[in-house]
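Follow-up to my earlier ticket, as requested here are the two runs.
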Amino acid sequence: MQDINDEKRRWKRLKTGSSADLVIDNTSYPARVTDISGGGVSLETQTPCQNGQLVKLDLEGFGDFDAVIIRDQASGLALEFSHAEDDQSSLQEDIDSFRRENDLEWD
C-alpha cells in the first residue's frame, strides 16, 4: 500500500547510515542519518529539542546546512533544510551522485 505522503514528496529520499553532527545553541550532538533528500533529513539522535527549533547540521560527505525541526518523535527527528531551492536541487544532485557511486537504491 502506498503512503499518501509519498505523493506529496518533491525530493527523492536516500536511505543511509552516515554520521552527522546536530548543532543546537552552539553545542554539537552526534546523530545518525536514516534518510536524506534535497529538502530535508531524518535523524536518529537522543538530542533534546522542539518542533520549529532552528539548528545547524554537519552532514558527513555533504557539508553544513541550516534546518528547522519539523518533527520530534521517539525514533528521532525530521528536519527541513532552510536553504534556497537552487541549493536544494544542487544537494539532490550530490545525493544522486553518492547513490550511484555506492550502488544504492532510492527509498
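Run two:
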Amino acid sequence: GFVKLYEYGLKWRYMITEKAKYKIRILIFWEKHGLAAVLDAFPYKRSTLFLWKKKFNESNRKIESLNEQNKTPKTKRKRLWTFEIIKEIQRLREEHPNLGKDKIYPLLKMFCGEKALKYPCSKTIGRLIKDLGGLRIFPQKISHFGKIKKVNRQKVLRKPKDFKAEYPGHCVALDTIERFVHGCRRYIITFEDLYTRFSFAWATKSHASLAAKEFFALCQKVFPFPCEFQCILTDNGSEFKKHFSQELNKQYLTHYHTYPKTPKMNAHLERFNRTIQEEFVDYNSFLLLNPENFNRKLVDYLIFYNTERVHFAFQNKLSPVQFMISFKQEQIQQKFNFNNLVLKSKTWWPHTLVCLI
C-alpha cells in the first residue's frame, strides 16, 4: 500500500546514488543492444561491465549494489621512525612547552646529524606530534589551598566567518584600551558600528563589567540612527562578562566573542583604536588622570570624527554620519518609489465611486 510505496520512494531517493543509476542504464543498454554496442557507446572496459553485472545479479538485482564503495585501503601505511627521534621530540616539547614544528626542525636535524639518523621534515614532525596526542602543555591553575584546580573553559558564541553587517545597528563592536599615566592605570572603552563606522569612546578608572554595562547604555543613547542593536562583538575580557553579559541577555541581544589572541576578528574596531590613539589620546594622555576632563575634550574629537572626518570605508568621500544620512535618504527613496508603484497600479481602474451632490 501507501507505506510500501513511501519506503520504496525513500529508498530510491536516499540509498541509490546517481552513479548507480548511471550504471544500471548502461546494463540495460547492454541487454538491449549487445556487448559490442555498449563498448562502443560507453568508455568502460569489458571486465568492468561484467563486474557490474555480477554484483547486480548476486544482490538479487538490487540497484543499490551498484553504489560506489569506500576505496580507502584497509591497511594504511604507518609512520615508522626510530624511538630516539620520538623521544627527542617529546623532550623538546617538555623543555620548551608548545614549541612549533618549524622551530623543532633545526634542533632535531642537529640531533639526527650527531646520531647519523635520517631526520623528518617539519610537516612530518607536526604529524608525529599529533600522533603523540598533541604534546600540548597548559599552565595549571592553583587554588589558595595550594591544590591544582581544573580549568573550566566557558563555551561562548563565536562570530561566524561569513558574517557581514548589512544595516546600521546589525553588529556593533566594543573593546578596551589600557593606558598608564604616572603609575595610574586608566581605561578607554571604545565602540563602533560595523556598517556605518559610527564610533564612540569613554575613559574610566574602572575595568569592571559594570563600567562596560554603563558605557553600552550610553552608546545606545548617542547612536544617531533610529534602530536597535542586534549583535554585539567583543573579545573575551572580564569587562564583558557578568553585568555586561547579563544586560545583553536581558535585552535579548546576540553576544559574539572573538577567538583568544585573534584581534583581526574585530579588525574594524582595532583600527579605530589605533586612529583614536594616534590622533587624540597620545596628545592628551596627561588628562587621563582626571577622566572627566579627558572625556570633555574627547567628545569634541568624536564629533569631528563622526561628522566631518571622511572615512576610508566610504572612499574618503563621506564621514560616518554623512553616510548614515545618505543611507536614510536611500531608504526613503526606495519607500517613495514603492508608494509610486502602488499608486500607479491599475487595479479597479475602471471603477468610480458614486458622487452624491
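The only thing I checked on run two: The beta strands are 141-142, 148-149, 171-181, 184-193, 199-204, 231-234, 254-257. Let me know what else you need.
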